[in-house]
Design a protein that fits this description.
By secondary structure, the protein is α/β, with parallel strands linked by helices. It has helices at 8-13, 22-31, 45-56, 93-111, 122-137, 150-153, 159-173, 175-178, 223-240, 245-256, 271-280, 286-289, 294-302, 318-322, 332-337, 360-374, 382-394, 398-410, 422-435, 473-483, and strands at 34-38, 80-84, 141-146, 183-190, 194-195, 207-208, 221-222, 268-269, 314-317, 324-325, 342-347, 352-356, 444-445, 448-449, 452-455, 459-467, 495-504, 509-516. The strands form 6 sheets. It has a 5-stranded parallel beta sheet with strand order 2-3-4-1-6. Strands 15-16-17-18 form a 4-stranded mixed beta sheet, with helices on both faces.
Length: 517
């Protein structure tokens, strides 16, 4: 499995498995001129750039047996500038200059340096390189910039420095516009297309391919590609985990599939999760463990955003998918672009997208991190808390479950209690969603929507909540009966438990509750 291998030549010559994307590579290279493609991290952007590099260098032998071998007849050779910003540390402008220096030094050995009077800034050097390479080779130049936005993403929470970094990057990237006569093809890849802090105001000639249906599956692995390319590994995974082949494939679907980059397009698997699972023969949260969205979580908390937005699908405009405003107080666009949310549906009449978690790995990993941000530091791990709540319900101890929840809310420091009334409701919903790893939560029934229904091995628990002053625990119990929330579960032979709970707004925790069967 080519885990962490991002060089196309190494994959093709090193005996690694390769999912053939070269038909799309050929189409992109020959339909596009100056393009941008946004995809989440660990989704194959660097491998795409590497593949394009070897294609434009005319390395025909690396593509033997692949789709592109039947499409390309001439294999023209172009000068290729491959600028990779993924590995730099950008805590200063000097760090950015150092990384640009490292990317320009090698091409200057081949194509020469600027004369002293032509300027020595990264932008001036880059412009000189493009001109000299085109003139000396007699061919137009290809520019591939990987992780173009890494210096900005690393500094999202440093507003003043972010603007300085944006200006420095904008000055460098603007050379692409003024050097258009020397360019055959340009591709910038990254996670985010910024607005306001954007280099795109200087690069308005870029064609954004991120929502283009023709290239929806250029990164990632489709269900068909998974089965066609990894059947032996899937069989071994099933055997190792005491599952049938169909059960193993279904679990792969739940954990790693579900990314939709265009409305109506097929779901894509996260390749990093797939490769690691098949290599280790063990299911895990591989993608999420490589980096948590700490800046996003901090922004959610600082802007007092309703946590319920993260326990259900959200609706946004198309502009929200492609433009992120770093100071706008709305993290939803960046959550989408970073891969924590994906397209679930599209209303063409209103131009509205419905976003939601793509799969269980992302959902439960993100919610665990979000809950840690809102809850106080505790000696026990967060996993311990979720596990204890599950244990209470699994043993039928609903009183202990509610008492534990009440104590948890009491432990939240005073400053947090100044937040709005829905805060504590949201925390409970968040906890229930995390319990969804082990139980079924928030079910819809024909007569309406129960606040929370949790299905355990031997029992079904239905919770109905009221805010103090807006109803009593007994009224909540009555509503469960009147609406028939538990009727769909009467034929299952499980114990049915209904619980009415009141949130005490003054004490900021659970108030009274009543339990009925």
């Amino acid at each position: 499995m080519p885990i962490g291998v991002q060089d196309f030549e190494k994959i093709r010559t090193g005996g690694f498995v390769y999912v053939d994307k070269t038909a799309l590579v050929y189409r992109l290279a020959n339909e596009g001129t100056q393009c941008f493609l946004g995809r989440p991290r660990r989704f194959g952007k660097s491998l795409l750039q590497s593949t394009l590099k070897y294609y434009f260098q005319g390395k025909k032998e690396l593509f033997e047996g692949l789709a592109i071998a039947d499409l390309e007849q001439d294999w023209p050779v172009h000068p290729v500038f491959h600028i990779d910003l993924s590995g730099g540390r950008y805590n200063s402008l000097e760090g950015l200059d150092s990384e640009l220096e490292a990317n320009l030094a090698l091409p200057e050995e081949q194509w020469g340096k600027n004369p002293p009077d032509a300027g020595n800034t990264p932008g001036a050097r880059f412009q000189g390189l493009l001109r000299r390479a085109a003139e000396k080779s007699g061919k137009k130049v290809v520019v591939l910039i990987d992780e173009y936005d890494k210096p900005l993403v690393q500094n999202l929470d440093k507003s003043e420095f972010l603007e300085e970094m944006r200006m420095a990057l904008g000055s460098f990237y603007s050379i692409l516009k003024s050097s258009d006569q020397y360019l055959r093809f340009v591709l910038l890849t990254g996670v985010t297309k910024f607005s306001k802090v954007s280099v795109f105001s200087d690069l308005n000639q870029l064609r954004d391919m991120s929502l283009n249906k023709n290239f929806a599956n250029i990164c990632g692995i489709s269900a068909e590609e998974l089965v066609d390319n990894f059947r032996p590994e899937l069989d071994a995974l099933a055997e190792e985990n005491n599952l049938s082949y169909d059960e193993a494939l279904a679990k792969m679907q739940r954990l790693y599939n579900g990314y939709h980059f265009v409305p109506g397009a097929e779901g894509m698997f996260n390749p990093f999760g797939v490769l690691n699972t098949l290599a280790d023969q063990k299911f895990g949260y591989y993608w999420f463990e490589t980096g948590t969205p700490s800046v996003l979580l901090k922004e959610i908390k600082n802007h007092n955003i309703n946590l319920l937005e993260y326990t259900r699908d959200v609706t946004v405009t198309e502009n929200s998918l492609t433009d992120y405003r770093a100071t706008g107080g709305n993290p939803i666009p960046l959550l989408y672009q970073s891969g924590y949310l994906t397209i679930k549906d599209y209303d063409s009449q209103r131009g509205k997208y419905v976003l939601g978690f793509p799969n269980e790995e992302v959902e439960y990993g993100f919610l665990e991190e979000l809950l840690r941000v809102y809850l106080p530091p505790v000696q026990e791990s967060q996993g311990f808390y979720v596990g204890k709540f599950i244990e209470d319900l699994d043993t039928g101890n609903i009183e202990k479950f509610l008492t534990r929840l009440k104590a948890l809310f009491y432990s939240i420091p005073y400053p947090v209690k100044e937040q709005s009334e829905y805060h504590y409701q949201s925390l409970f919903y968040l906890l229930i969603r995390l319990m969804g790893q082990f139980a079924q939560a928030e079910l819809q029934c024909a007569a309406g929507r129960a606040d929370v229904v949790v299905t355990m091995t031997d029992a079904v628990y239905c919770f109905e909540f009221k805010l103090s002053g807006n109803g009593t625990a007994m009224e909540a119990l009555t509503q469960i009966d009147d609406k028939g929330y538990l009727i769909p579960f009467t034929a299952g032979g499980k114990k049915l438990v209904k619980t009415g709970v009141v949130f005490d707004n003054e004490k900021h925790t659970l108030g009274e509750w009543k339990i009925g069967e």
